[in-house]
Amino acid sequence: MPSDRAPSPLDEIFLSVWRQALVDRANQVAIAGQIYPVRRTAKRRLAQIDFTFEGADYRGLEQNPETTSRWAQLARQGAKVMQFLFNGRYLAVVADGKLTHYSRRSS
Predict the structure, then answer these.
(1) pTM for this structure?
(2) Domain that holds residue 64
(3) 91-105, pLDDT tens digit by residue?
(4) For the chain, how many structural domains are there in total?
């Protein structure tokens, strides 16, 4: 079900990081006037970007296509997929330009 709400500034950052790292294949990404390097993971050479937005630290991580998740399946099919984490928890994913938020589960 599509949402009519406008993307938040953080949503825009996630989309920009995804685009710069996976579509443009840039070696660095620019966020709010700051430059952050795109590193590659040692084992799979997946793109990884650690960045700060509004005082909080985030990580963008290219989806490993060799896992069993539905996002990995999309990556195996050629989709450009990046997960976004905050404090080690997955917040959102961008797959071929479409942002999806993970829902919070109540305890």
Answers:
(1) 0.88
(2) 9-101
(3) 999 999 999 999 765
(4) 1
